Amino acid sequence: MAEMIYRLKDGNFEKPSRTYDELVAGGSTSGTMNVKLYFGDKKIMEESNCAATRSVTRQIPKTSAIADATLRLLLQGVTPADGEQGLVSGFDNISGYYGKDVGSLLSYYHGISVVNGVATVKFSGGAMAYLNNTACTQEEVKGSIGATLLQFPTIKSVQYSVDGKVVTEWDA
């Protein structure tokens, strides 16, 4: 309760809160923890649903910025083993699909903030090649990001900001 009052009084909404488990452990962030990453399920995506995802469990170092650390790991994309299991991610531009000068989605990522249950994923302008592409591409990218972030109890919805402005209108 004291933390909530402090944040409201100071307007300090950027610093991540610690979880109950971290508080019980004395705030220790040493060791690792399991998180789920949601990647596209290639078979279902091709048959019927571009936003279809399937989870894989990964270990990350314990941190108070768990949503950010998890999202950074997700945006690195699938491993070769994930690919063999039919998982895909649309977070890189190795094929040149997004254009010749477009970097990976991770290269445009600038962090995440969570206020009142709304996670705002912050990107620079180059991310629009991924976020505002064809409907199916949008669903693939945003479906994986959304499913990954919604595993955290403090996150109830996900929105995207590009160059500091929340984007609500998408072309496709």
The strands making up the biggest β-sheet line up spatially as: 4-5-6-7
Please describe the biggest sheet, giving its number of strands, its sense, and whether it closes into a barrel.
Answer: 4 strands, mixed
Strands, count: 7
What is the overall pLDDT average? Answer: 88
End-to-end separation in angstroms reads 43 Å
| Structural domain count | 1
User: Rg, please?
Assistant: 17 Å
SS content category: alpha+beta
Give the % helix.
25-40%
| Helix count, DSSP H or I runs of 4 or more residues | 7
Q: Which stretches are poorly predicted, pLDDT < 50 over at least 5 residues? A: none
* Beta-strand residue fraction: 25-35%
* Overall morphology: globular
Q: N-to-C SSE series?
A: HHEHEHHEEEHHEE
Quickly list its features.
7 helices, 4-stranded mixed β-sheet, alpha+beta, 3-stranded antiparallel β-sheet
What topology does this entry show?
Blueprint: H1 2-10, H2 20-24, E1 32-41, H3 42-47, E2 53-61, H4 66-74, H5 80-84, E3 87-88, E4 109-115, E5 118-123, H6 128-131, H7 135-149, E6 157-162, E7 165-167
Parallel strand pairs: 5-6
Antiparallel strand pairs: 1-2, 1-3, 4-5, 6-7
